[in-house]
Fold this protein.
Amino acid sequence: GAVVSQHPSWVICKSGTSVKIECRSLDFQATTMFWYRQFPKQSLMLMATSNEGSKATYEQGVEKDKFLINHASLTLSTLTVTSAHPEDSSFYICSATPTSGVHEQFFGPGTRLTVL
Amino acid sequence: AQSVSQHNHHVILSEAASLELGCNYSYGGTVNLFWYVQYPGQHLQLLLKYFSGDPLVKGIKGFEAEFIKSKFSFNLRKPSVQWSDTAEYFCAVLRLPDSWGKLQFGAGTQVVVTP
C-alpha cells in the first residue's frame, strides 16, 4: 500500500516550452502533497506544499509563476514548469501524506527533466 | 532556523563491516524522525521512523536507529552491511506541531559497500 506514482518518469523538452508532471497517490487519499527538486549528488529541496482545493505554499526562492502547482483532487497533484530553461533541468520528486493523519510522506519515483 | 546535519558525505566500507551514520538536528521541540534510503536509480524508501516511545527503533533490512533527545541525534546503524546496501541515505526531521508536515532533509550520505 501507500504507492505514489509520477508521470512521466523522464522528459526532454526545448527551451521555452512548458512541461507538466503528474503525481498520483494510487491507493490512498492525500491531504497534502509536496514537490521537491533534487540536484545530482545533493539532497531534496522542498519547492512547495500542495493542499487539495487550495493554493500551494511555495518555499522561499521558488518562483510560483514558473512552477505552477495544481492539486485538483485528493489523489492528484500536478507541477507545470512554465517556459522551461536549461537551468530548470533537474530531478523532480513528489510525496504525499495520507488523509488518515499519519505523519509520514510516501515518495514518488521522480521525474527527470532535461531542457535543451 | 532548523537544520539537519549528516556528518559523513561519503562512506566506503567492506561487506560484513558495521555501519553507523550520524544525524543531528537543531530544534528543541517535539520531532518525528526518519531515515530514507535511495538505491541507485530508484526512489526514496523509508527505512525506519521514530514518533515516540522506545528510542531504539528497528527498520527494514536490518537497520536500526537510536533517538537520543539530549544529543538531538538519530544515528542509523547496521551491524553487518551487504553489497546491496550501497545507496544514499537521508535523515529527515518533521518538526511538530507547526511544520505543516514539511520534512527537513539532511544532505545525505553516500554509502558504498565493496565486496
The longest strand of chain A covers residues 30-38.
